[in-house]
TrEMBL record:
Gene3D superfamilies linked to this entry: Jelly Rolls
Organism for this UniProt entry: Brassicogethes aeneus (Rape pollen beetle)
Protein name (Swiss-Prot/TrEMBL): Cysteine dioxygenase
Pathway recorded for this protein: Organosulfur biosynthesis; taurine biosynthesis; hypotaurine from L-cysteine: step 1/2
Lineage: Eukaryota, Metazoa, Ecdysozoa, Arthropoda, Hexapoda
Family recorded in the similarity comment: Belongs to the cysteine dioxygenase family.
Amino acid sequence: MSATVCQYHPEVNNNDDDDYSEIQLYKQMGGQLPIINNLQDLINQLRVIFESDNVNIELVNYVMNSYKSNPLDWKKYAKFDRYRYTRNLVDTGNGKYNLIALCWGEGHGSSIHDHSNSHCFMKILQGSLDEIKFAWPKEKGQQLEEIERKKIELNQVAYMNDSLGLHRVENSSNVDTAISLHLYCPPYNKCKVFNQNTGQTSSSTVTFYSTFGKRIKENKEIIEPEDN
Ligand SMILES: [Fe+2]
């Protein structure tokens, strides 16, 4: 399936027993599926997959699912802020996608947002996250309609694109932090955020708290990580 048209509607592979699509993929790949033992394997495989102009999105989903979270792999990206969740750039995939670790403190959540016509995969590396989906607003001034609510647990992968609606993600735990690994393809630096009560939109710029394990400030000054 092409990554250029954002109409992918997967049977979300949150269940290990969802064998059917894996068998189909196995046949499609000529009996060879990548083996992912650690985060570096995942990064390397994603780079290989995205070398193609016609990216196999099912294969992206497969490798994201295959990786089993190990804190030793990602602790250098795990940088938290007391007040809001942080985005920490892991890899830019030769400009074709962004791989980002999002670190959620207790009770932290996102605003309701779209995905700028990109694919979004979200894998849980630590803790769990709630995803609340909304329909696109039909009329101005209308409250956004909630259409789905689910918890995404450790190592599960959720998928989202604009044809599936809008969503908000939150760490509803009062005691545990959460970390998620997001793949956005193509990468984007602006998205729309929505007011739940009025449907009103505004533009939001995607910023990074750290890149490649190094903390950055607004003025681009690189400083030492504050916490890991
Ligand atoms: Fe999102």
